Structure formats: structure tokens, C-alpha cells
Request: fold
Amino acid sequence: MNGHDVPADPDPAPQPDQYPVEWEADVVLRDGTTTHVRPIRPSDAAALQRFHMGQSERSTYLRFFANIERLSDRDLERFTVVDHAERVALVAVKRVGQDLREDIIGVARFDKVAPHEAEVAFNIADAEQGRGLGSVLLEHLAAAARERGVRRFSAEVLPQNGKMLAVFQEAGYVVSQHVDDGIVAVSVDLDPTDRSREVMADREHRAEARSMHGLLTARRVLLVGPGPTAAPGTAERLLAERVLANALRDPGDGTFEVVGLTAPGSPELPVQTAGEHRGERHGGEGPSHVEEPEGPHHHDHGSAHGHLHDAAAAAELVEELVEELDDEAAGPPVRFRARIADVPGPVDLALLALPPREAIAATAELERLGVRAVVVLSAGFAETGPDGLALQRDLLRTAHTAGMRVVGPATYGLLTTHAGHRLNASLAEVEPVAGSIGIFCQSAPTAVTLLATALRRGIGISSFVSAGHRADVSGNDLMQFWQDDPETSVVCLYLESIGNPRKFSRIARRLASVKPVVVVTAGRSGQVVPPGHAVRSTRAPRRTLDEMLRQSGVIHAENTHHLVDIAQLLANQPLPSGRRIGILASSAALTALVAEAVVSAGLVVSDCSTFLPEDADDERIESAVAALYAPDACDVVVAVHVPTVRPRVGTVSRAVARAAAASGRTTVASVLGLHGLAAELSAPNPADPDGPRLHVPAYSTPEDAVAAVGAVVGYARWRDADHGTVDRPADVDSDRARAIVEGALAGDSVVDLDAGTTARLLAAYGIELWPSRRVRTADEAVAAAHEIGWPVALKSTAESLRHRADLGGVRLDIGDEDELRADVEQMRASLAAVLPAGNPGRATTGEAGTGADGHTGPAPFEVQRMADAGVACVVRSTEDQLFGPVVSFGLAGDAVDLLGDVSYGVPPLTDVDVATMVRSIRAAPRLFGYMGAPVADTAALEDLLSRMSLMADELPELRSVELYPVVVAEHGAAVLGARVQVAGAQRADTLRRALPG
Reply:
């Protein structure tokens, strides 16, 4: 494509410090495999030549408009020596061959032809086409171009190059094209659009879902243990032996190849540890057994798997299972190999229980086997410090350049109960029953608890993944998969950290619209970062995480017990149609206690609620249950049966289960002696009498049952509600705003915008900042008042007295010159009493110079036209390293600040989100005619918040914005003051797809 960039003279070589390492990224392609994208380097000349010579004549012609068999040295220098500013090139690479060299599989480049325009060219390896690599490179090149001030790509494409034209047309940008002299001239506007964001999100979803599909449908599994150099009792050996024991007990629907472990009772032969190539290759049927070395070599990296049995017990179990396996007539599903090199491909999934450096070496050997994912059971990576973090990054780079995802390190493993893909590749000795709940967690101890709880309650699991330190595969990936997985109806996540909250929010919001998502966070604030988790720090308020989850429609559980309570309700009962709760209890006192719990949960007690004494006969039980399940009697039934004297016979439980199944009404129960899914609380499905029975979930206490119901009712209401749309007013000029911000930036330093620049920036988003004048003397104040119009307000510019009328820092509604002159002198005198001596007007940043009275320095006073009377508010936005932009709203005043009566929102915010922010603060009644006051123009306030959200979302360089005060009157909202700080962008969730690491 585009043959006009070959003959130009090469530019000078860039200095090493110009290399933009932040442009490097690992990405997931359309088929779920991975690759590495980075800026080109001069050292890539040989790889670029190999790439070029490997292309077909057609591909070369489409790229250069000529058949060029080999690039000249001059061309190679031009293509590989760039300045990363005027001339930029990105390459996609993968490691191949015995020497694991990096080969280029795609190139994208641009050359600036005007201050805001660049000519672009792409070239994708023939063997890699159809995997979405061109689309990924366009995203990354466009992001780099925007950083360099480029707003438009232009290209010349041959008409027969349909694939390249499709890359431009399908990206969602504004594209124009025309044919000139047999060449298609294409112009691409790089400003992101709603469509381009949708396209990126959809491609991201499909790629990451496909990636997890390969992980969770694995059939051929490779387990690599530490080999003979590891003594019994080392963490790696125990991990490998536990997985092996599980596989020997029940390999599911898969087969296991085992390297680095000895099969007891078999002939001895040497075992390869990662990176070693000892012994002879062995073939043939059946397991190949290996010898145990003498002499210990202990590796212990503080793995979290402290619950494992000791080495002797694990070895004894393995030997017993191998003996059982050898007795079977069929070929063994578990085979032992001497080396990774002896393993026949393909292999879907690899499990590594190795020290870090050996794990990295083993990962490098897996590329030839076609492995889709690597599960790293062992620890010793980022949690050990900077050196371990470097090893973890090396592991990721090795895996991603070979097309593999990484689960872990320090993972508990994964398991799936999918029909035809049943697999236990975890440390769990007993698998849960098959069901419809997908579970993701991070740490191994939490995995033990969750799986044990599910097993104890009889709750069915569709698939389970423990990410350990979450170096790569995260909850975001699993949510992408579970959205389309027909086997999963409920998604549960235990999150110790959230690496990319903005991405989490948009994925969770889309998933929650079709399937419930239940989340437990290790800390309510999201500010807990366990060792080994590479997560950005955050200074966002503690309530930010709660607000983000609320916006996303996620059910935020209090703890793992609460999470499982909610999950068993969602998986076994329909969503409630309302919040009216019918109570059936075994005593009047118990009914009253349950009713109190219902009201405390924000629910409503239905009039149909009743109680049944312990001695109630069958007829009375059936009558009470029928009344409770009568049409429109209630929306949810809470049945509580705790006999005190008589034994429980199950009559009430069975009657409730039958009525719940017949009516389809949401039902929960708290019955003495029952927990989880019990046969006593089950009934045939009227729609499928021969199918699985329907269960009413049982809870330990009535309070647990009601708490689960309250959470599910809230989710059902969110799902049925209108979530609104993200408004983009027609008068917004984001190009002008970006130009203003870029003109004010000074590297990574924080810059305070002056009043004029602030006003222009806000105006670009349709926000009018009321003009004011900084003054020093009464004469200057009077002149300013004549200019901006009477009546006026006089304010101190001192930082400690801004907006403080109680301390003499503000005088309002000044109607004439005499009053203004008097107020200036009175304010000067009063300020002298509260400010440091000799500095009655120490001001904030503002206009400085020499006044009419000869005084120099910042002006101590500010004059501004009076706004209509109304409610004073504060609107702020802060760019957080972790959460990105966080918008807040509250009424003005010390009491509001002290009490924390502030609402938060994480952009992008819909009109419904904005309306919720305005109404969710405790002082909101003041906006709606409190105590006879005029009703404020909340529509104007919501419009202002919406514009602020849009600005914060589109301009990551806005470090902080404060609009204070905003006076909301009966008609309109006046922004009387504003402060803006800008600095270099640091946002994690950008307009390009990239994996962590």
C-alpha cells in the first residue's frame, strides 16, 4: 500500500531516550491468541528484510505498487530509523525457531505531511491475515498519532486491496475516499466517535472471549513439574503432585501429558526440568516413568498454597492412583514424558509448577505445541519485589509473543464442568457439581473457601478460574467469555484488586444487562493492593468504587458468605418482579423479626404475611401457602420455619417448594437444619417434569435470606430501569478544547490555567464562566463594576477566605459606587484582622502588576456581577491514576464538606447517572423547594454535570477541575468560579486494546 514513501532520504537516527516505551503493548487478536506490538528499532532491519522477503508478490505489489524482491539498505535504514515524532512505525512481533528470535508479522507507519496530518501505510504478513492484526495496529498507530498532534490519516490504496480498505471503513472513524487516476485516496479523521468506541469494544469482547474459550475448553493438557532436582516437600513439587493426583483420579474429558514428575512403580528414566535437555527421547504407548534423584534441592518461594498435604502423602496418593489407572483396559489418559521436547502436539493448556526462571524457560518451549494458555501454579514473582516483578514481565512477554495467555502466578488453577470439556486443572481435590455459576477469584486461599462453600451447599458451578496475582488473565477476560457462555447464568467475582476499573465498568455494565454479576472486593474502597499485584495507586474517595459498581449494575456483596447467598438465589429462582415481601414464619415473634429485617433492607412487607404455629395441620399449611402465592399477593416469599419443641417433618418446606415451582414466584427459605440446596425444598418443574428439580435456596438465618433478597431486588430494578444515554451537545468543540490543553501543557508538570484560558476551555464544552475582574483599589473596583454591570459582588482572592462570607471575605448585592467603595475599605480592614500582618490580600493565582495606587503583587479583591439568587453548589472532577476521571457534586458549605455529603460518578455518565448524582445527596431537598424556597433549575444543573463529565472523559490531561460556586436559580445555573489544572495524560484505559504487563 502506498508506493510513494520509498525514495525519500532517511532521517537522522533518534537518540535512545526518544524511544517511546509506553507504546509497547501485548494484545489479543481475533482468534484469541496474543502478540506484542512495539515501536520499530534500527536493530529490526534483518527481521524486516525477512518479513518483506516472506511476502507474496501480490502483497508486495499492494504495499509498494511495485514488485520489490528485496529491500535495499537505504530502504531498510529509512524504514527502521525513525524519530518517533514526525515519522513513526509500529511492528507486531512473535518469537519463533529454536533461537526464539523475534519475527515481524505486521508493520504500521505514518509520516507527517502537515502539522495535523500524516500519510499512513500498513503491511500484514500473508500467514497472519484474517486475525485482526491490521485493526489492532490501526488502533495503536492512531493513539500514537494523537499523542503527536496528528488528527487525520491519509493513504493511497489500490482498488484491489479490499482488506486494507475494509480496515479503514470498519474502524468506526469518519472516513472519506475518492478514486484518482486508478488509486483510492482515503482520509481518516482520528477523532474518536461513538461508533469507533463501539467497534473497539466489540472487537475486544470477541477477542478476549475467544481467548478464554480456548482456556476453558482445553482437552489436551501438559503438566510440567520441577523434576528430580526438587526434593520432596518443595512448594513446586507439592503443587504438581496435587494436580497429577487429581488428573489420575479423574481426568475429565481431557488427556494429560506429564513432564518433570515420577510415576511410581514404573521403569526409571531421566526427567527434563525446564531449560534442560537430558536423556533420550522415548515413545510408545503408556506412561514413561522417571527416576527420583538423590539429594535434596529445595525451592520455596512462599507460595500461598499452604493447605497442601505433605510430600509423603501426596506421593502415596499418586502411586495408588497410577496402580488403579494401570488396571484399566483403555489407554491411559495420563502419560509421562521425559522432556517437553518429547510431548507431541498440539497441546491446548500448560500447567507449570516451577521456580520463576525455569517457568519462563519452559514457557519459551511451548510455542511449537500450539499452547493457548499457561497456568502458573507456583509463586516467586512480583510479590518478592522489583526483581520478581521483572521476572513476571519476562514471563508475560515470553508467553504473549508466542501467542499464549497467562493465568497466575500463584494460581489455584481452573476447572470447568462444561459437557464434553470437563476438566479439573486445579488444586481442588473434590470438584463441585455441575451448574450455572461462573466463579472468578484471585488468591488461592479464597479459592479454597469458595469451592468448599459451593460443595457444602450443593451449588452447581459451570467454570472456575483463580488468577492468583492476576499478571494477565483477569476478571474482565472471564466476564467477556461468560457473557456468551450458554452454560453460565450467574457470574461471581472475588477481586483483591482491579487493575483497570474503567474497562471493568464498561464490561460489567454490558454483562449485567443480560446476566447478574456479583462482586466481593477485598477492600470496600478498592485501595487494597496485595503483594504481587501490579496495580496503580489511587487517591480517589473511598466511595468511588461503590459508585462505579452501582453504575455498572453490579451487585456488591459484603463478603464471600454474602456472595454465595446471593448466587444461590440467582441461580435457582427467577428475578423478583417487585419489592413486596410475603412472610411465612413459624411464630408471630419470628414474623415480626423477619419483617424488621425486610424493612431494614429497603423492602416492603406485604399484607399477605402470616405465621403457622408448630401444630398446624396439613390443611392449614396448604391454605396459608396458597394465600401467600395467590396472584398479586406479593413479589417474593420468605419462608422461615424454626420449630422449638416438635421435630421438623418437612411438610411446610415441601408445600412451599411446590407452590414456588408452580407459580414461578421468587422464594427463599430459612429452615432449621437446611442450608443451600436441599431435597426437602425441591419440587418437579411443571414445564419439564422429568427434568432437573427446582430448588428453593435455604439460608442459615432469616437475616441472610432477606439480605440476599434485598440485593437481588435491587439488581432486578436496575435491570428493568432506563439507564439513559451519554449526551453530546451539538455546541461542544472538543478539537478546540484539546488544542487549548495541548498549548498549556508543560511536559509532566502540573500547570494551573489562568482565568482566560480556563474560560476558553470551558466555553469549548458549552460551559459559560461568568466574567470577573481582579482589582486592588476602590477606583478599580468601581470601574470594573461599570464594565460588567451592576449589582456586583466583592470577594477576597485570599485562598483561606474565598467564598467565606462569615469571615468577611464576600460582600453581595452591591448596587452603587458609594456602597462598593465603602465595602472595599471595610473588607480591607476586616481582612487585615484575619490574614497575616502586612498581607491583607494574599491572593490565589491571578492577575498581578502595579495598581493605580502604586501597590504591586496579586490583586486582593475580585468584582463580579451578581447572579440570581439560588442554591450554591460545587462540581469537581479529578483524574485518578487508577479510576481515571471521577466527577463529584455537592452543595456548597463547610457542613457539606465536613459531613461528606457528596455524590460521585465515573464518566462516561448517562443522563440518568447525572440525575441520580443530583438526587442522591442528603441535602438534595434544598434543590426542590425545601421549606418553601423556589425550586432550582435542576435541568440546567444536570446539563452542566453532563458537560463536565464529557470534558473529563475526553481530556485525560485535565488533572483537576473545580466549578465553585455554581449558583442554581429558578432559571439557569451560573458558574461563578473555576479552577483547572492540566498535566500529561496517565490514563490506563485508552483508545487502544492492550493487555496488562
Remarks:
- The longest strand covers residues 101-114.
